[in-house]
Amino acid sequence: MDPDIFSNTAYKGTKQFTQHDVQTANATGFGAAADDYAERGIDLNEQLIMNKPATFFFRMNSDAMIDAGINVNDILIVDRSIKAINSKIIVAAVDGDLMVRRYLQLFNKATLNPENKKYKEVEINEFTTFQSWGVVTCVIHILDANLITFNKNATQQKRK
To answer: Which strand ranges, in their side-by-side order, compose the sheet holding 130-140?
Structure first.
């Protein structure tokens, strides 16, 4: 089997649909004048996910990447199909622990660098059990405290 030929698993989204394809009920029989200019909604899966089967969502539980704009409780979109290369922010499994850090490689030395001065860099050497779990492609930062509370309550309800 040729390794360069593979099936496309990318999420296709709703690009082929427009607002005109959606059936609406209109009691008067006449459409509104603005209906001709309506645009389709924004599909966040289509906009933010390149490879749906390889994409996962994480919640950040540390302030180690705060200077990179990733705060505690932010939602990270992580794509496992993207290769970890120099300067990418990745989720890494290091000695059994998952961490989010910036991957830096210089010649034969690789490190995982935090974006907060409170934390030290992690050097990857022959004694370190290291696996790149995926590359962070997006960060969702929730601004409204009501949405944070709503998400916590919904999570607690699911656990009951």
So the answer is: 55-59, 75-79, 130-140, 89-94, 97-106, 109-113, 122-124
Is 54 within 8 Å of 77 (Cβ atoms)? no
Q: What is the 3-state secondary structure (H, E, C) of 88-100?
A: CEEEEEECCEEEE
Where in the chain are the domains? 53-159
- Residue 6's pLDDT band, with cuts at 50, 70 and 90, is very low
Q: Rounded CA gap, 55 and 136, in Å?
A: 10
Single pTM value for the model: 0.71
Asked if residues 122 and 84 have their Cβ atoms less than 8 Å apart, the reply is no
Q: Which is the CATH superfamily of the domain at 53-159?
A: Umud Fragment, subunit A (2.10.109.10)
Helix, strand, coil share of the chain (percent; to 5): 20, 30, 50
